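Review session, final week

We close the course with one last complete record, chosen because it touches almost every idea we covered. It is HXXEE domain-containing protein, a protein from Methanococcoides methylutens MM1 with 124 residues. Go through it on your own first, then we will talk.
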Amino acid sequence: MSDILFWVYMINSVLLINHEIDSAYWKEWDLFKLPGGITGFLLIHIPVLFFVLYGLVLVYQQSYTGLIFSLILSFSGIFAFTAHMYFIKKGRDEFKIPMSMFILVSTLVVSLVQAYLTINLLLK
């Protein structure tokens, strides 16, 4: 199951990184009222992307810490979907194009699978 988790983590990482690229297009810093504009947004993503990629290494190594990183990443994907659906239901136009929606829905599905796999491995 650890091998499957590695690939699911990889897929979710790609989806979430693509979502963050999409977020720059939609100026997500305005949506979440983050300071610093694009500069602040990019600076925030340096440690975030390091975290995501380092977690992939830890999952590959089948470490306990990798499972914790995996759980955090899966919850991040669930949060991304939920937060953006909230804003869409509030009437915001960001992230409503088909590709943005595809990325968000795919992220939710993969994040749920990842959380399931991760929790099963943590309980072993």
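Two points worth writing down before the exam:
Helices lie at 2-25, 28-31, 37-60, 64-89, 98-122.
The mean pLDDT is 96.
Good luck, everyone.
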